Amino acid sequence: MDTTGNMTALPDGNLTCLLTIDDFRNKVYSTLYSMIAILGFVGNGFVLCVLIKTYQQKTAFQIYMLNLAVSDLLCVCTLPLRVVYYVHRGNWFFGDFLCRVSSYAFYVNLYCSILFMTAMSFSRCIAIVFPVQNLNLVTEKKSKLACLSIWIFVTLTSSPFLLSGSYPEGNKTKCFEPPKSSQMTSLLVLHYIALFVGFIIPFSVITICYAMIIKTLLKNSLKKNQSTRKKAIWMIIIVTAAFLVSFTPYHIQRTIHLHFLKRNDSSCEDILFMQKLVVITLSLAASNCCFDPLLYFFSGGNFRRRLSTFRKASSSSVIQGPRKKLSLKEKDDEPFQESHK
């Protein structure tokens, strides 16, 4: 499904189309992937450092964010390899293993991000809509179990992407190129499984959760404290933006494009247009790494206090005893009030 190269083999008379899309593809990918790699590495690296330094203050939200940051960092670490590939006009220098891992890491991150965001949204929904049941439903232990389940599920179901490696073509070594026509049937099956399980179902769950959150906040506007309302609203904005910008365009375009590849009567203009859409939407999908740190900065709760703790821990050269556990007031400021079962 990593259809990032020349999507369709054109007739001999249409070589101009291939050259045009290659030039566009190489410039856009090398530029956008560079920007995403820098922003994603700095943002997620910083979040990860703060979360690790203040890990004894963990809540359900922090556990989800920790896993989300790890997923993003694994992906952005492979983006420089893609940048080098496209800067050198589609020539892979890093061996077959890293070619497979780069494609694999991209999709693991994509669907881990979607599922971690879904888990966060569900937990926030329980915390706000069902605050009493929240004490048993949203716990540290259950959050860890949910994260482990997501990792196992995504890494196993994304394993088919490890089957596509590098291969020689002329005087170059190719990677991230479109599948052969003989693979289209199995690719469509894989696509629809990923589409429903990895996008439509999570997006439906998130939509229902946010509708319930908004309804509860409007109904109990005087009872909910300002901090809870603000964190819930920020999460809704950021997650919705991530889906609208990164995930939705990519999945819609991928569905259309895979069916487009099966056609034999496409004009050169249509092929070029579809290829450029793939370049744009795949870049937008990769940009989800830049949205995730915003969740922690604006919706994570107690960010300033954790940052202060992180600075003190970083500047201190004396080994101190374990930090004190969260006070009742500090727990109230966290995104999810949970029991530590």
Short recap of the structure:
The chain is mostly helical. It has a single domain (22-315, 324-331), classed as Rhodopsin 7-helix transmembrane proteins (Rhopdopsin 7-helix transmembrane proteins, Up-down Bundle), CATH 1.20.1070.10. It is built from twelve helices and two strands.
Q: What does the model show?
A:
With 341 residues, this protein is an all-alpha fold. It has a single domain (22-315, 324-331), classed as Up-down Bundle (Rhopdopsin 7-helix transmembrane proteins), CATH 1.20.1070. 71% of the residues lie in helices and 2% in strands. The protein is built from 12 helices and 2 strands. It has helices at residues 15-53, 60-76, 79-87, 95-129, 134-137, 140-157, 184-219, 226-260, 268-286, 288-299, 303-315, 328-333; strands spanning 167-169, 172-174. The protein has a two-stranded antiparallel ribbon with strand order 1-2. Strand 1 (167-169) and strand 2 (172-174) form a beta hairpin. Helix 1 runs antiparallel to helix 2 (60-76) and helix 7 runs antiparallel to helix 8 (226-260). The radius of gyration is 22 Å and the shape is globular. Mean pLDDT is 82; it is low at 4-17 and 317-340.
What labels would you give this structure?
globular, Rhopdopsin 7-helix transmembrane proteins, 341 residues, two-stranded antiparallel ribbon, mainly alpha
Number of domains: 1
Tell me the radius of gyration: 22 Å
Based on secondary structure, the structural category is mainly alpha
Helix percent reads over 70%
Q: Name the CATH superfamily assignment.
A: Rhodopsin 7-helix transmembrane proteins
CATH architecture descriptor name: Up-down Bundle
Mean pLDDT: 82
CATH topology: Rhopdopsin 7-helix transmembrane proteins
Strand ordering within the main sheet: 1-2
Topology order in helix (H) and strand (E) letters? HHHHHHEEHHHHHH
The total of helices stands at 12
The best one-word shape is globular
Beta-strand fraction estimate: under 5%
The biggest beta sheet reads: 2 strands, antiparallel
Q: What is the oligomeric state here? A: single chain
**Poorly predicted parts:** 4-17, 317-340
End-to-end CA span: 41 Å
CATH secondary-structure class: Mainly Alpha
> How many strands?
2
